[in-house]
Amino acid sequence: MNAKVWLVGAGPGDPELLTLKAVRALHEADVVMIDDLVNDAVLEHCPAARVIPVGKRGGCRSTPQAFIHRLMLRYARQGKCVVRLKGGDPCIFGRGGEEAQWLRERGVEVELVNGITAGLAGATQCDIPLTLRGVARGVTLVTAHTQDDSQLNWQALAQGGTTLVIYMGVAKLGEIRDQLLAGGMAADTPVAMIENASLAHQRECRSDLSAMAEDASAFELKSPAILVIGAVAAVVEEQKIAAFGSSCTAYGVQAL
Amino acid sequence: MNAKVWLVGAGPGDPELLTLKAVRALHEADVVMIDDLVNDAVLEHCPAARVIPVGKRGGCRSTPQAFIHRLMLRYARQGKCVVRLKGGDPCIFGRGGEEAQWLRERGVEVELVNGITAGLAGATQCDIPLTLRGVARGVTLVTAHTQDDSQLNWQALAQGGTTLVIYMGVAKLGEIRDQLLAGGMAADTPVAMIENASLAHQRECRSDLSAMAEDASAFELKSPAILVIGAVAAVVEEQKIAAFGSSCTAYGVQAL
């Protein structure tokens, strides 16, 4: 019996950003339950496992959470090694904490494996360091998704002095802009909006806080995307402008 | 000629948390420049490379940053493939942004590889989800290190509603406590202090905001350690107390 559930972060999309521990979990898996946002390419590490798609996306047809819970429990009780593969990291907007708790309450052994979160990988691929001495002494990751009923204090977020990385914000750009402006953030604060972070078809739209909703619309920005808001989002841009003498506010970069 | 500098995150310590891309970079390396906090075990992936320790630690004898810059440049100009191996992620308190900029200005090709940051791995090993629906809709990572002259707004951090993860804070626990209390954070806000995150000798001290400095002192908490401040730090604790009917404020957990 190797009954166990691994809650594994598959990283942001680039299959090379999988950790060695995630690869080991996949090798050991009898059953792999895979989220929508996970790149199928990582399944090369579990050729013999049974693969079950259990996608969940806001606004689309999706697998209910309770069903996912019961499925994990059923396979674990059959003595199977189950890998639940999530985009990014299981404990950063990944429900890893909830699922681990639910399974452990039912006597199932759970092991969590960290993954690279999309906000970090997307920013890095755009040459944006999330922290930078003299510019940003920290970074805040938040979700704009409203199914989470905990409160965000946008005024505090606007004034914290950290780089702001917002997940699941594409449908709420106008609202985010209004909240941050009302909270005292400068209208010309640089913004990078990054679609399909770390994948070959990553696209990137540069803007600022006041113009981001319009620029995203013109760019046809689509989910999944992350927003990076703060001075770091313009640091490399400014170097490029200094070097090439040109400026731009919104453009796409293919296969960075 | 494969002249190039890879700025690679080696993760928090557990060598299995290295990414596949980091392993590839190590395989290609002629020269590996390794930071203090990187676990030597990852060097198994570059048996033929020349390994140069370039440790930097606050308060200790360390390698000057300018020397590290020049060394990377010299090897790259000799046509060598250089891997600069950093603890955690190169762009989260890792100076990756600065080093990439400096090298690119001198015509050197640079590639950044993300790593799992210590705050995330340490929390996960203690069963603390950094975000949790209904409890914390985001997470803020900040450094308490004063060599960074950018400003932190502690009042905003105290009120943002995100889980707070503080790096390099062991020597400043009293100051952090005072700032957060003055900013309006509740005195009984749960705190987990995690030494040597993700390593076999990880140790963990649970406390709350008002008592954390005294509890850390009694626990003999040492650097490197991260602080996790927020309601998520008590969620699993509360479950354990509910299950076993006992309570505790500070204890050590070996080899989690």
From TrEMBL, chains A, B:
Highest taxon, organism lineage: Bacteria
InterPro entries, per database record: 4pyrrol_Mease, 4pyrrol_Methylase_sf, 4pyrrole_Mease_sub1, 4pyrrole_Mease_sub2, CobA/CysG_C, Siro_Cobalamin_biosynth, Uropor_MeTrfase_CS
Q: What is the top EC class of this enzyme, as a single word? A: transferase
From the UniProt record, give one GO term of the biological process aspect: siroheme biosynthetic process
GO MF terms, alphabetically ordered: uroporphyrin-III C-methyltransferase activity
Q: Which family does it belong to?
A: Belongs to the precorrin methyltransferase family.
**Protein name per the record:** uroporphyrinogen-III C-methyltransferase
Lineage, highest ranks first: Bacteria, Pseudomonadati, Pseudomonadota, Gammaproteobacteria, Pseudomonadales
Identify the coding gene: cobA
